[in-house]
Amino acid sequence: MIRTVIIDDEPLARKGIQQLLATQADFEIIAECEDGLTALEKIDSLKPDLLFLDIQMPELDGFDVLSALQMDPLPLVIFVTAYDEYALQAFQNHAVDYLLKPIKEEYFLKAIQRVRFLLQAKNEPDYELRLQELLLHIQQRPDFIQRFLVRERNKLLIVPIEKVNVFEAEGDYVCLITSKDRYLVRLTLSGLEQKLDPALFVRINRSTIVRLRLIGELEPLSKGDYQLTLINGPKYTLSRTYREQVLKALQ
Amino acid sequence: MATRLKKTSTVLLIWTVAGLLYSAQSYYYRLELGRPVKWLPTLAVDAPYFILWALFTPIALLVSRRFQFTRENWGRLLLPHFTLALLVPLGHAVLYNLYRFILTAGVENGVDLRRIFLNAAGNVDYGILVYFVLLLVINVLDYYGRFQKERTQNAELETALVQSQLNALKMQLQPHFLFNTLNSIAVLIKDNPERAAETVSHLSELLRHVLKNVDDQFTNLKQEVDFIRQYLAIEQVRFGDRLKIRFDIPTVLDQTPVPSLILQPLVENAIRHGIAGKIGPGLIALTASKSDKKLCLEVYDNGRGYETETSKGQFGLGLKITRERLHSLYGENFEMNFSQAQEGGTRLVLQIPIPQETLQ
Question: How far is the C-alpha of A181 from the C-alpha of A164, rounded, in Å?
């Protein structure tokens, strides 16, 4: 049996895949999830062979789910999307399976035939590589990051970008500082900087990015550095390397 | 050509008036000092001093445009400007003194150029002053013209922006929504053919509305609400019957103009952030009312509420575009606020002005 999980926020869309799978005796639907967070929990506990993964979902989308997966090896994934030009291009470039809504039966059958083949061939090294490359590609998407997925002990948490006040580099990690908490995510500060809206955030020294709106005071220190005070209290050093861009952003 | 003639005669007129004023002033000045003075000679001597400046106005215009000061180049322009500020008034003074010479001595005994030049050099100082005032006026007028032009351009840009935002909204509505709805219909055809047929007709109504309003910034409240009814009916199909919907739109407000497609992103937000992910039935209520020449539209959802919503304080893309669009339509004259409802859930209140002619 090929143990399958369907992830889509629309009940009728999940039903559609059920309908199509109903005639395939070797597939078993072990879970249906209507959001990304539940999906991650289910995948962690059930270790399915195959995911039907919708791309557009509120909060965590399909790509967020994929990048947060900790299963090894990764399950096979058939992406499902109604419309997303960027994603389609990525799928084509990396030769992973995807289906367009409304789903055409012929393409559906082809896709699951390929799943059967890949599962029999077992560790086809190529497949996982293609998925990894797809993920890398997706992470370079031109849009700004909206949220972070944080693992805390055995819990998964979504931290929306609106809640983050400061990002601090800590070794291989970046610490997200909100008004109440601190969270660690595995990221580089420079990589993160590219994914932040420059109208909202600005880098102030080698290891800190702050929310522009929160900058309260600038006081000159020696050698062109400044002491930067946030309106909610914390003080940082604005190094002269970043001084120009901060002053520009503040205007 | 007509504008050129108009400009030339305006310049001539202004200088003539200046000349007349100057003559009058000079006349009364001499009268006051008790000197013998007559109208006509004073006019003949003094008025042409200014009328001659009309001849030099095009030169001043040319100079001020050719050597226009900017932040970077003013240092390099000082020399040519000062040179011309001597030469132009000197030219004027020479011409004027020639005229005066001819007026008083006539041409029978020849023209004493040496005297004319000496006189010109002697009274060029007043001319330099006039020249600088002239340059100043030209610059102020040019600056004002550029300012006006920039303002028109900005207004045009703004209209274009609004138009593109409207288009963006339509695009945002169309592809995702359209294909997801088609997918739902495809599934329903096997599962519940009647419901499928119903959904097809909702979708048709919706598309008809979008196509009809494709170029219009405004529609009326009734049409906008009908559009939302179709939209919500489809969302009900997509998200199952977890969605309850309530409308409270007084019919007296039916004809009130509203920006077209303004409600859809607000309602979509209520569904996405309020209802999706919620256990138990979700409720969306749309209310309209009129208060103090303003139309008040309210979108309520009984979702997870203000505190936990990701959109708290900030807005999703659809809402951001809506806010920008309202801003370019009404300036500061609108309000769009979220608040936590007492009975739980979130209330979004939108207030826009009702145009004068619609108010009875």
Answer: 9
What's the topology of domain A2-139? Rossmann fold (3.40.50)
Query: Which of these ranges, A166-180, B93-107, B160-174, has the smallest mean pLDDT?
Result: B160-174
Check CB contact of B280 with chain A, cutoff 8 Å: no
Which of chain A's residues have a Cβ under 8 Å away from the Cβ of B312? 162
- Give me the mean pLDDT over the B269-298 stretch: 81
Q: Do the Cβ atoms of A82 and B175 come within 8 Å?
A: yes
Taking CA atoms, B354 is separated from A29, A187, B255, B289, B319, in Å, by 55, 50, 11, 11, 21
Mutate to test the interface with B, among A6, A7, A12, A213 (most CBs of B within 10 A): A12
pLDDT at B339: 83
Domain of residue B319: give its range: 242-358
Tens digit of each residue's pLDDT (9 = 90 or more) over B131-157? 888 888 888 888 898 888 888 877 877
Sign for the CA dihedral angle at B68, B69, B72, B74 comes to positive
Burial code (b: 16+ CB inside 10 Å, e: under 16) for A45-76 equals: eeebbbbbbbbbbbbbbbbbbbebbeeeebbb
B276 near A CB under 8 A: yes
Among B87, B119, B153, which residue terminates a domain? B153
Please spell the DSSP secondary structure of B134-195, one letter per residue: HHHHHHHHHHHHHHHHHHHHHHHHHHHHHHHHHHHHHHHHHHHHHHHHHHHHHHHHHH-HHH
Q: Which two tokens stand for residue B247?
A: 């409308």
Pairing of strands B218-220, B243-248: unpaired
Residue B171 near chain A (CB below 8 Å) = no
What number is the ipTM of this complex?
0.75
Q: pLDDT-derived band of residue B122, with 50, 70 and 90 as boundaries?
A: confident
* Domain A147-250, CATH homologous superfamily name and number: LytTr DNA-binding domain (2.40.50.1020)
Look at residue B320 and tell me if it is in a domain: yes
Q: Which residues of B touch A9 (CB under 8 A)?
A: 276
B314: domain CATH number is: 3.30.565.10
Average confidence (pLDDT) over B114-137: 86
- A36 pLDDT more than 70: yes
